[in-house]
């Protein structure tokens, strides 16, 4: 079955960067660039106008920064796009702030063309993506300073814990459904309950919460 086309908006204040990312996205058979923006204010406007599936967004931009723009795009939007931050800066503070704002991914601009298109597909399916270096630091910090598992985990049902563990392992809703032999709509319900119980807004923050609370994979 043919994959649905993924509409993408790209925001970066450097023209060559926008052009390069647009060439990569448009070369994929299942996605297209519907608009590009040179600053944070413009991407907020274009996201409302074109209603893309995914927004690729720099963090440091003129007029409105990417973190503020992400909040503006997502807040009050019944069907918000998935946002992937693309940045030169391998910075945990930036990563934490953009993910807390609701982004589904944080990648560095030196990612490969294949890595970029794979990330777009992953977040479009409901998954999350993190730069390998960011993930490595989370894992390293967890192993060096393991936290005591949060008591909140005791409130999970057996099924919720299974879903939680698979989210942390990076599985999409479809992959979890296949693994647990359940309908994807049922998995979405369980994912919603997991998010509500630990008090985060999206899957990528489930992963961060897991590592910070001693529930990451060993």
UniProtKB/TrEMBL annotation:
Protein name: LigR
Signal peptide range in chain numbering: none
UniProt organism field: Actinoplanes liguriensis
Alphabetized UniProt keyword annotations: DNA-binding, Phosphoprotein, Transcription, Transcription regulation
One term of GO molecular function: DNA binding
Pfam families recorded: GerE, Response_reg
Domain HTH luxR-type positions: 149-214
Keyword Transmembrane helix among record annotations: no
Keyword Disulfide bond carried by entry: no
Residue ranges of domain Response regulatory in the record: 7-124
GO biological process, one term: phosphorelay signal transduction system
């Amino acid at each position: 079955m043919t994959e649905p086309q993924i509409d993408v908006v790209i925001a970066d204040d450097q023209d060559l960067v926008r052009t390069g990312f647009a060439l990569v996205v448009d070369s994929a058979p299942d996605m297209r660039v519907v608009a590009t923006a040179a600053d944070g204010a413009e991407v907020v406007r274009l996201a409302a106008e074109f209603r893309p599936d995914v927004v690729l967004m720099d963090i440091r931009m003129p007029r409105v920064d990417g973190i503020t723009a992400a909040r503006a795009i997502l807040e009050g939007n019944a069907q918000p796009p998935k946002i992937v931050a693309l940045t030169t800066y391998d910075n945990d503070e930036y990563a934490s702030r953009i993910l807390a704002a609701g982004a589904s991914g944080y990648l560095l601009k030196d990612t490969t063309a294949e890595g970029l298109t794979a990330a777009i597909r992953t977040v479009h399916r409901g998954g999350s993506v993190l730069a390998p270096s960011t993930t490595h630091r989370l894992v390293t910090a967890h192993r060096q300073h393991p936290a005591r598992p949060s008591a909140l985990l005791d409130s999970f049902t057996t099924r919720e814990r299974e879903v939680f563990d698979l989210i942390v392992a990076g599985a999409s809703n479809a992959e979890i459904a296949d693994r647990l032999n359940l309908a994807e709509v049922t998995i979405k319900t369980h994912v919603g309950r997991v998010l509500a119980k630990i008090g985060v807004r999206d899957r990528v923050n489930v992963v961060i919460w897991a590592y910070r609370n001693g529930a990451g994979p060993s």
